[in-house]
Prior knowledge:
signal; alpha+beta
Amino acid sequence: MLKSLSIAAAFAVALSGASVASAAPCKDAKGKFIKCPAAAAPAKPTKCKDAKGKFAKCGTPGAKPV
């Protein structure tokens, strides 16, 4: 019981340390704090339809992007 409690406590400390590191502020070349640049939005996956109007893998013959 005591061993599992200590493992759980160590895991919680490790997770809290990871969240602090990911929230670190940005610095410029001179070491001054600056506003962090916005992260780029992930690209939307392209969907394609075949000649019949059903969804198909892009790259198959006759498939056109929607």
